[in-house]
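REQUEST FORM: STRUCTURE PREDICTION
Request ID: SP-0412
Submitted by: Lab K.M.
Chain count: 1
Length (residues): 217
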Amino acid sequence: MIEPLTVRLNVGKLYSVDAPDAFTAREDFNIELQNMGESVHVHLRFDEELSQRAQLPEVNHYVEADDNRQVGVRVSDHQYPIKGELTVASGYGSETECVSITIAAPESDSDKTKKAAEDDGSSETDSGSVLTRGREWIQMHNVTETGVGGIAAVGGLGVIAVGIAVIIAMIVPNSVTVLLVGTTLGVVVAVALGLLLGFDWTHRWCVRWLLMNIRLK
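STATUS: Completed
RESULT:
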């Protein structure tokens, strides 16, 4: 729905008129008179060019205090664009304001369809760019889809191994030894899985960690 042309009255002082310098609509539109103070008489007038192609239901309006009033504008000429000027006067001419009016051609069904297609295309482009960045990151770090799954599997097994070792350490008196043995077993499993999936960096790191723990024992 087309936004109305909003004119605010009695803002700051009696009979003041606050309106935009220019307004653009498509076909029929409304003028909304917003009274911010005492009751006021308002006169609306189109210039000669605009008055020949658009009509106001009436030109004189009385707006109650702190009230709003909608004035509908009907366009009779369909040769677009339509341009002209609206004059808003309050308090029997005490204050006036002019607004440049442009009435553009309404959107056709093809225009609406084209706009909707452009919006859909923009969404697909955004989604595609996210996927593209993800693929680039994977390629840059030399990680394959199998590798991503392998990383998750290795991490999961490591957590499980440590958990089992901690539980055993709570039961068996020699908890330090059991904890080291259990953790070492978990690392051995992780190394084996890393070798199976082809993660050279994984098994190298795990072997160094394993050797360090063997020295501690």
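NOTES: The chain has five helices and ten strands.
Reviewed by: T.R.
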